[in-house]
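User: My instructor asked us to take a sequence, write out its structure as tokens, and then describe one feature of it. I'm not sure where to start. Here is the sequence I was given:
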Amino acid sequence: MTPAHLAEPPHGIPVSPLLTCHPDKRLLYGADTYYQESHGQLAALTDDITGFAHRHAVLLLKPDAVVARRLDAAVDWLSGAGFRIVGAAVTRLTRTMIRSLWYFQWNLATPYRRRLAALFLEDADALVLLVRPEHALDIPASVELTRLKGPTDPDARRPGQLRHLLGRYSYLLNLAHTADEPADVLRELAVHFDDAARDRLFRSALADEDRTADALELTGRLYAATKPRDLDFDPAVARLRDALPRHRGADPAATPRMLLETAWEQGIGLDPWDAVIVGSKVLPMREPGRAPVLDGADVGTWRRHLDTVRATPS
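Assistant: Let's start with the prediction itself. The structure tokens for your sequence are:
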């Protein structure tokens, strides 16, 4: 008999409570096309889907990490943090993909945040790394990597965290994203990649192959295809002020927010990276009073969750 907690949901496939702490995520992901695709493909390759999802984590190094030339630093950090790269591939964060990745979180994004994200996320390709810890953990690898990555708030990041190392620019320019939980590992791989690319990643990870050399080779390709950029705020404001005096009605002495909004109102063409650097610092990124539809869970929550699940009769 199928355990009650793995009963077939009415609109999708069962999602094990070992893959997420959130009952709502189990229901929504069970009916989610991306999750279903990844789950079904992996089921054809291994009987241990839950184990695979627990042992692996996904790190997305975004276009801001590419133009800031921080990919190789992230690869080095992973090794120092006890993670080995077992799969690497390039992805393009299109408008549709951005909304698919953060579908259950962007309900709290302001229109400014969506506008700015569109300016830079599609400007360059990004790097996806599938990683696993060198030593066994008592929590999912994705949860541990998310903890070590550091928070979205640049002022809350601490030395040793990946986002602290890569650069504390702004909420939006955070350079790195991780899948929060094991269920997210499966879903996000399907958001990024088609069946063929996903099959290569799954097989490489199941073979436990070291793909660090592939990651560094792809790093070189991404660097060769893009111009390096300075993502610091003050130089970007200075470039913005220099651009505006050429246009009637623009006040170069205005605040950075007024400069940016004036340029947008008048249809003045701006360097997209400068607009993002300035805008992500001075414009609201989160709608007040809203919470994400779905979120991750911290290490303590996961440990308690695992204790509860394992103590529940099947």
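For the description part of your assignment, you could build on this observation: The mean pLDDT is 92. Try explaining in your own words what that tells you about the chain.
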